[in-house]
Amino acid sequence: MALAQARGGLRSHFRGYSGARPDVVRLLPRESKRVLDVGCGAGMSAALIRERCPHARVIGVEPSPELAAHARENLDEILQGRIDDLETVRELAAQDLFDAIICADVLEHLAEPLTVLKALTQRLADGGCVITSIPNVRHLSTFLALGLLGTWPARDRGIHDRTHLRFFARDDIIRLGRSAGLELRSERRNVRLIESKAWSLVPAKCLDFWPFRGFVTFQYLHRWVRADHDHGG
User: Fold this and answer.
1) Is 99 helix (H, G, I), strand (E, B) or coil?
2) How many CB atoms lie within 10 A of CB 106?
3) Which residues of 198-217 are buried (b: 16+ CB within 10 A; e: fewer)?
4) Cα radius of gyration rounded to whole Å, the chain
5) Pairing mode, if any, of strands 57-62 and 77-80?
6) Apex CA 181: angle with CA 91 and CA 222, to 5°?
7) What average pLDDT does the structure give for the chain?
8) Which residues are CB-contacts of 20 (< 8 A; sequence separation ≥ 6)?
């Protein structure tokens, strides 16, 4: 009960960016021993990662000093800094290779996401994977704002977060992964009719089919492997 209250307090304090991501963790291979969580927030996904991968060592990268301080209580190791900073890159280069690298709603915040994703791909162990979660700019809310209101939507979080530097639809995400030397292995989607979580299932689920699927998909979740490795299957 106390743990649940503490997690709830963190989520509220950090406006949702510290929340655990069970949807992302479900894509992790259970045999993963070393997991890198890029943009780990307050480290609230760590318990879920260890539950799915009992022997995993979880390392996080987090630019916010405040969030990183909380993450240190939950992760085995935390690198405080931006994933695209030279110092962070050097620290990662000194680490052993990873079985899984998570980039959950991170790449859209970077000026050069392809450069970062290529570098992360080189830190994968044999048979390792990259898991990405990226907002879908093709969502209905973009069309409503541009088509009806005549303005680009800018919000505190979500698809149109003011801090986003890049925007992706599904084809852009696939192109990004392939350009980084990755091969797509699994895809899942989070659907919402509008950005409010209260509308996350109904009636969005009713429209979750072609040709409406791309307009109600809020986030695309993908698991990737290195294209130059033989993974079988």
Assistant:
1) strand
2) 23
3) eeeeeebeeeeeeeeebbbb
4) 17
5) parallel
6) 85
7) 89
8) 7, 44, 45, 47, 48
How far is it, in rounded angstroms, from Cα 213 to Cα 211? 6
Residue 195 has pLDDT above 80, yes or no: no
Do residues 15 and 41 touch, judged by C-beta distance below 8 A? no
Contacts of 151 by beta carbon, 8 Å cutoff, 6+ apart? 145
Whether residue 153 is preceded by a cis peptide bond, meaning omega within 30 degrees of 0, is: no
- Confidence category of residue 8, pLDDT binned at 50, 70, 90: very low
d(CA 136, CA 222): 13
* Separation of alpha carbons 120 and 39, rounded Å: 13
pLDDT digits (tens, 9 = 90+) for 62-108: 999 999 999 999 999 999 999 999 999 999 999 999 999 999 999 99
34-to-60, 91, 107, 208 alpha-carbon distances in Å: 11, 15, 21, 35
**Apex 99 CA angle, 77 and 71, nearest 5:** 25
CB 46 within 8 A of CB 75: yes
Q: Which residues contact 29 (CB under 8 A, 6 or more apart)?
A: 53, 99, 100, 129
